[in-house]
Structure formats: C-alpha cells, structure tokens
UniProtKB/TrEMBL annotation:
GO terms for biological process: biotin biosynthetic process. Substrate binds at residues 58, 151, 286, 321, 416. CDD domains: OAT_like. This is Adenosylmethionine-8-amino-7-oxononanoate aminotransferase.
Length: 451
C-alpha cells in the first residue's frame, strides 16, 4: 500500500494535478493539505490533524460535511439509479426537485432547467435571455448590464459579465463587453451616506444607463445582497426592489445569481426574498446539494418558457445541454438538503449564530488596520487596510491575506482571504464555541498579517 501521510500524498499530487485558482509555484513553500475525512464543520488531514472549514469549502457546504440526511439519500439512490440522460428521459429525483424548487422559490418562477455547476447556470441564463428576445423578433438585444465588481464564473460567457480583473483581464480578447453599472456596495458609499442612500443613488445611475441602452440590453445580472468574489461587498436590499421596477419599466430581464448567496446564507432561503422580488432568472448551485455533488439549476417564468414552445420547424428550441444535466444522485442530494431546511429550524438557528458571530467580530471595528467589518447573515468580512483613516489599501503584492491564511492553518482553521479581505462563511452546523475558535484565530492572524 502506498504511504498515506500528508507529505506522501502532497508529493504525488504535485506530480500530476493542476489545482484551480492557484499559482502552483506557491506550493514550493506552502505545502498542499491532503484531506482524508470530513464531518460537520471539521476536515481531517492525512496526518490526523483537524481543521474547522470556516469557508464551507468554497461556500458550498451549507449544512455541514456528510450530513446524515444527505448521506442516506445518496446511498439509497445509488442502489437504484446512478445516471440517465435527461434528453427524452426523466426520473423521479429530477422532477421532484423541480417541483420542490418551484414551491420554495420566489412566486412566479415555474420552470427549472438543470446544469452542472454555477458557471454553467450563468451560461444558461445569459443564452436563454438572449434567445428569448430573439424568438420575440427583437434581435437587437445582444448585451448585458452587470455591476462593477461583479463575479459570475469563469466560463467565457460568465467572464463576460464579470468585473474582477484578476479573473477576466487575461481573457479580455475572447470576451464580449458588458455595460457596467456602478455597484451599490455600501463600503463605497459617500461620506455619511446610508446603505439605502447608496442604493438609491446607484439606482439613479442604472436608470440613466437603461435610458441609453435598454433597446440593446437583454438583462441586468446581479449577485443579490453580497458580491462575494469582489471581497464580500454588501448592499441594501432596496436596490433589488428598485432593480425589479427598472427592469419592468425598460423591458429587460433581471438575472439573480444566487449561486453563492442562496440556501440561507443571507438570512432567508433566497436573498431576493429580502426585497420581496422575483427575478426572471434565478441561478442556483453550491448549497443546492449541501455541497456534496455538482449540480445547478436555473429557474424561470412560464412567460420565458412559452417563448421557446413551438413546432420544431420554427427553430425556437433551447438546445443547450450537458451530459450530466439533472443527475439523479445530485438531485437526491438536493432534495435531502431542502428536506433539512423544511424539517429543521435552520434559518432560525442561523440568526442566533449570525448574532454571535457579529458580537465576536465587533472589537475589530476599532482596529487601526480595519476599515470595515460587514455582515449579511452567515457571511462576515473584515477589510484590512494600511491606514484606517484614508482607507489606503495594502499593496496586493504584499499578500497580507496569505499570511493570515497560513497562520490559521497552523492553528487548525481554514480561512481563505480574498486579497486583503478576511471573511468567515461557515457551514450552518457550526457551534458558538467553534465560532469563537474561528474568530480568535482570525483576529490573531490579522494581527500577524498587518504588522
């Protein structure tokens, strides 16, 4: 049997695996961490050391690793049906999941289109919106409006509505160009301006854009309430209500990318609920399966569906496809996840956990190198700066967040800062004692990173 230590597995990995979102040269000084087991909020490496997964394994693991309800559902499904294509076939997990998603989603969303991952869901929504207008004879609608600081994935269509240069700049020659609307990010608000005031001002600027560009615009795409990859930028829910009104007024679609913020992250099952709005397209993934298997879904309205429904010779069908669309195992995992939300007081528990997290992070508001401590539900972020008064940032090349990450790993906590933003986004299975461990570690890591 091959050795199964951290060192042995890391050496084998580096010989063959190219990791995502990684400069592989970093692993010459930052050892790879082989994980062999997980339970609840805890990960265990090959040497037996345990770590709190304080970032939910890239924001996917909402209920905790190996949740018994999900594990049981997967074992049961594997004994009956592993996979069948969804073109010309159906199966109970896919249709039952669609029924349940329509039941719990904002009212008016009535159709479910499956894909494999978050970026793929964005591709579906973008193509479906464009194709809808084409089917209605409005071929001039070919562009999309996105927010500054937006991130929607790393396939080419998703990158085309992404405004995080770290991900999109290299591929600019391959991308279509979005129309960028100023983000309602409260951190960037004018001095003395409330988050609601910032949202209102930014809605005025969006209106001006739509007055010029609505005739060529398919949709406005946003991450509701939190722009995650941009540094957990947060904004007031009134922006979503105003956005819905503007989309209706100017006859463009509203695409809500809830891939990261859905399934309880912001305090409600879906972030859009906090503004009482229904988007034309709701994109879901990550927490959809409790973080166990890859699956995404795009929910839309009957009005959109009807624009594609015609005799085959009309050429209006939406022919987008993925081999593993609606995989039965993934759908069963998603059904089990929704069952937990239905049967257990997950959202109520989250409110208590979020309040404890806020209380523990509060002392950082007075730290000389912290410009902002912000939180929406079970997402909290700390903005590190060189100078609190001027908000002068630390130079990116200094990689202050990396120092915090390395310290936290040594202490048994997985934090993965976004540049100079240290965030906490844990599974909902976390306890208050475990939150204390995470916050204490983050505070010590921040002290080390800014010195």
């Amino acid at each position: 049997m091959l050795p199964r230590s951290n060192a042995a597995l890391a050496a084998r990995d580096l010989a063959v695996v190219w990791h995502p979102c990684t400069q592989m040269h970093d692993h010459e000084t930052q050892p790879m961490l082989p994980i062999v087991e997980a339970q609840g909020v805890w990960l265990t490496d090959a040497d037996g050391k345990r770590y709190v997964d304080a970032v939910s394994s890239w924001w996917t693991n909402v209920l905790g690793h190996r949740h018994p309800c999900i594990v049981a559902a997967l074992k049961d499904q594997l004994d009956r049906l592993d996979h069948v294509m969804l073109a010309g076939f159906t199966h109970e997990p896919a249709l039952e999941l669609a029924e349940e998603l329509v039941r719990v989603a904002p009212p008016g969303l009535a159709r479910v289109f499956y894909a494999d991952n978050g970026s793929s869901a964005i591709e579906v929504a973008l193509k479906m919106s464009f194709h809808y207008w084409l089917n209605l004879g409005r071929a001039g609608k070919t562009r999309f409006i996105a927010l500054t600081g937006s991130y929607h994935g790393e396939t080419l269509g998703a990158l085309s509505v992404t405004d995080v240069p770290l991900y999109s700049a290299t591929y600019a020659p391959l991308l279509t160009k979005p129309i960028l609307a100023p983000s309602p990010d409260a951190y960037e608000g004018a001095p003395g301006e409330t988050p609601a005031g910032t949202a209102a001002r930014r809605l005025g600027e969006l209106r001006a854009l739509l007055e010029r560009h609505a005739h060529e615009t398919c949709a406005v795409i946003v991450e509701p309430l939190v722009q995650c990859a941009a540094g957990m930028r947060m904004y007031d829910a009134s922006y979503l209500a105003g956005l819905r009104r503007l989309c209706d007024e100017f006859d463009v679609h509203f695409i809500a990318d809830e891939i990261a913020v859905g399934f309880g992250r912001t305090g409600t099952l879906f972030a859009c609920e906090q503004a009482r709005v229904t988007p034309d397209f709701l994109c879901l993934s990550k927490g959809l399966t409790g973080g166990t298997l890859a699956l995404s879904a795009v929910l839309t309205t009957n009005a959109v569906y009807d624009a594609f429904y015609a005799e085959y010779r009309a050429g209006k069908a939406f022919l987008h496809s993925h081999s593993f669309t609606g995989n039965p195992l993934a759908c069963r995992a998603a059904l089990a996840t929704l069952q937990v939300f239905r049967d257990e007081p997950v959202l109520a528990n989250n409110r208590a956990l979020a309040a404890h997290l806020a209380q523990r992070l509060a002392p950082l508001r007075d730290h000389p190198n912290v410009a902002d401590v912000r939180q929406t539900g079970m997402i909290a972020a700390v903005e590190l700066v060189r100078d609190r008064a001027t908000r002068e940032p630390f130079p990116a090349h200094e990689r202050r967040g990396l120092a915090c990450y390395r310290y936290a790993l040594d202490e048994g906590v997985v934090l993965r800062p976004l540049g100079n933003v240290v965030y906490i986004m844990p599974p909902y299975a976390i306890t208050t004692d475990e939150i204390d461990l995470v916050v204490d570690t983050a505070m010590a890591g921040i002290a080390l990173a800014v010195r």
